[in-house]
Amino acid sequence: MSATDVDVVIIGAGISGLGAAYRIAERNPGTSYVILEQREQLGGTWDLFRYPGVRSDSSIFTLCFPWEPWTRKEGVADGVHIREYLKTTARKYGLDEHIRFNTHVRSADWDSSTDTWTVTAEHGGDEVTYRGRFVFFGSGYYNYDEGYTPDFPGLDEFGGAVVHPQHWLEDLDYQGKKLVVIGSGATAMSLIPSLAEKAAKVTMLQRSPTYIFSGSRYSASTDLFRKILPRKVAHSIIRQRNALLEGLIWFLARKTPGFVKWLIRQGAVRNLPDGYDVDTHFKPRYNPWDQRLCLIPDADLYTAISDGRAEVVTDHIDHFDSTGIVLKSGSHLDADVVVTATGLQLQALGGVTVSIDGAEIKPQDRFVYKAHMLEDVPNLFWCVGYTNASWTLRADMTARATAKLLAHMNSHGYTHAYPHLDGEPMPEKPAWDIQAGYVLRAPHALPKSGIKRPWNVRQNYFADAIDYRFDRIAEAMVFGS
Ligand SMILES: Cc1cc2nc3c(=O)[nH]c(=O)nc-3n(C[C@H](O)[C@H](O)[C@H](O)COP(=O)(O)OP(=O)(O)OC[C@H]3O[C@@H](n4cnc5c(N)ncnc54)[C@H](O)[C@@H]3O)c2cc1C
Fold it and tell me: Which sign does the torsion angle of CA 367, 371, 377, 382 carry?
């Protein structure tokens, strides 16, 4: 079987893979690359998730690419529009011509005698092979095949429909029906107001509350910037402003949790009906940003509750029966449809088996270098965004760092580069310092973070942006040919 030779094999045609392709070609014209995508369409998350109400929960101006302005009015975008933006952008810059769809990468093996990666994938039942000097993982952070559903006792007894948001059933008819959404994360928050438009009643069943922050979907100052400034200048200013605002909210939450708790509670009290039990349903036991803060546009969830179209129940599931859910408190939730918004399964490197000269390596045994390379693994890049800010803020930095390293290697004639940790053993800290269910359930899914640069993974866009600006490309890096 012959292999297709390219300079860079990119895995995944979501925000990260497309962004990497653009930055690599921008800085290294003439570099050949291919994007291997397991699905039949591009967009990744924004193509996979099709549940009603799917939308961004961070500013779209920071989630979109810095090099391609978001032109719609709203600052919190619906999934369908993000998907459209990614498709249009890929077409505009010819990135889509490099995508090989329905190509599921299974393994990547580094051959140190030729300094190349051999990437093996499945395509229409056949095995296909690509050989590249570099491999870039834009494969996201979760398992595409299966979301997470806990083992609910008696689920088999339930006579209604059960659907996970990761695999929404497009023909699911819920008009005039009673729905229970299990979960209190961003997915549940975005689903509920939308489901409530057609359903008879939507109940959000949560074990414990989440912090919710209401923000406006539209911004007058954004409109003004766009009116008076050239398109790209306006985009850049709006993007930096929103990154700053998101960073400020995170900073305040960490430094003055009491104040932010108060602010959030005031928002709930103001938007919910008089006498609503805010403390039971919307007062978490942890501090803001210990877990992801959920953004709701224009208080839409509170409005659905106030209108009586949605309700929140804070309780634990005892078991399912044929007509719904029996709770630990003894009450019963009648349901025609149950939506298990119970989360994702964390997965590093798209489930691909990575080896060096035939010997498998485990990402969780390696430290991450500058948040995008793995200790002692040559010519491999991994793109992971922030947990406390828009994904693309870091994804774009990773793409630019990759493009810069390629240019540096080309100009010096190097054929391999790998980060190496010398000296004292490096203490570890969690790579994703957030108490999200999918992180807690799989503490060893991700590569390790150290505590000092360049080996520490930080959730701080501004500190990373400064480091990137003054980056020393040869720091802790072994080059060779
Ligand atoms: C419902 C939901 C809402 C979100 N909202 C936000 C938000 O508002 N703001 C934010 O910053 N982040 C958000 N995120 C995080 C989100 O995943 C990122 O914003 C971003 O879309 C990730 O882009 P990506 O390209 O890295 O990964 P993905 O979008 O996951 O794309 C990865 C691509 O790689 C492909 N792939 C994976 N493994 C393989 C393989 N082995 N072989 C071939 N192809 C493979 C996948 O099919 C997919 O197309 C959200 C996530 C979810 C699930």
Answer: positive
